[in-house]
């Protein structure tokens, strides 16, 4: 038999021999129970957890939403350092409309009658001076209050500071009232109107539910136990749900998140899609290392005095910003995710025999017998034929 003939023969064997696996049946109760137990675990995972709990048979879509808000309430202030003042929505909600958020003014530092003129700087190590030589004309410190004129002036009977060109008199922002000026804001209410869409499923909803009519909306108020779907919220109630004290938060300001969760199961057997509200404080109120706490910003109201001088009232506003965060995913039965997760779950079943084999070959009493019967070592022998048995192709 020539060498090329042998080569050809083994190629034919390679192509046309049918291979089948031989099964070794192990009549051992322990191994059998272990095998079925692992199979059961895999089935429980694939069906019980992935399908029933995780709802892997659903296709999902995330929410698209729009929010509008309307705050209501009045306040009257009669503080010692300012005129008696009546406040309504147009005064304390700044700006008049915001994107998914609204700000309610609760405390402020007011500096009235500012005009563009010259006045001495507020005393600090970098602004005190002895004479005009200490003040460079035109020097502009971003942390100061204006542009220096080059003069050194009496700030008070004891302190002399550099004069600046600025809006004078300068704001003294350490005079923040210890109790919020608009303490009455705790009883203000806000109506939140929220419409959501799941575009993939062509599903639309709003947080004013179908059973709510206008007379209901006039009297209802959100309360987690008695009326969890009313879209009208008392500010104090939202802040106490977030675990905070309204008057504390109102003094220095803060940011509160109103979370609206629209997670829905849109399958026919579970069609119930209602918003769930929760509240949490979003800014840091950690008492350790809380150097610049709260939330504030400045704005001004401009007017002309009768003699034609432009004048403004500067307000450093402290208050609570309410951010409305809408999130959610909806799920609905889909054939593709069903097949994909079914395949993925069941493919774990093919791993079970390997686990059972490992158990049988290492942990069972008769493991040596099973080892001998299951694993055969190939004994290499130069005389044995490459293809030891079975039919042969070609002539002998
Ligand atoms: C404001 O308070 C002062 C005393 O602090 C009082 O005399 C005055 O009547 C108050 N004004 C109003 C409108 O209540
Ligand atoms: C500034 O204060 C000093 C002493 O306190 C006083 O002698 C001087 O007249 C004051 N200057 C002005 C312009 O008031
Ligand atoms: C808010 O309303 C409650 C009850 O209506 C009242 O007791 C409380 O004094 C009010 N808060 C303020 C700051 O006016
Ligand atoms: C609003 O709904 C309530 C029941 O929820 C009903 O008693 C009332 O008559 C309705 N009002 C109007 C104006 O439809
Ligand atoms: C919510 O309703 C319950 C039961 O009527 C009442 O006890 C509770 O004070 C209410 N909560 C608020 C914040 O109004």
UniProtKB/TrEMBL annotation:
The keyword Transport applies. Glycans are attached at residue 187. PROSITE patterns: P2X_RECEPTOR, PROKAR_LIPOPROTEIN. One of its GO terms (cellular component) is postsynapse. Pfam families: P2X_receptor. It is a multi-pass membrane protein. Its main location: membrane. One of its GO terms (biological process) is response to ATP. GO terms for molecular function: ATP binding; extracellularly ATP-gated monoatomic cation channel activity; purinergic nucleotide receptor activity. It catalyses: Ca(2+)(in) = Ca(2+)(out). The chain crosses the membrane at residues 29-52. Keywords: ATP-binding, Cell membrane, Disulfide bond, Glycoprotein, Ion channel, Ion transport, Ligand-gated ion channel, Membrane, Nucleotide-binding, Receptor, Transmembrane, Transmembrane helix, Transport. ATP binds at residues 70-72, 189, 296-298, 316. Disulfide bonds join 119-168, 129-152, 135-162, 220-230, 264-273. It is found in: Cell membrane; Membrane. Receptor for ATP that acts as a ligand-gated ion channel. NCBIfam families: P2X. Belongs to the P2X receptor family. This is P2X purinoceptor.
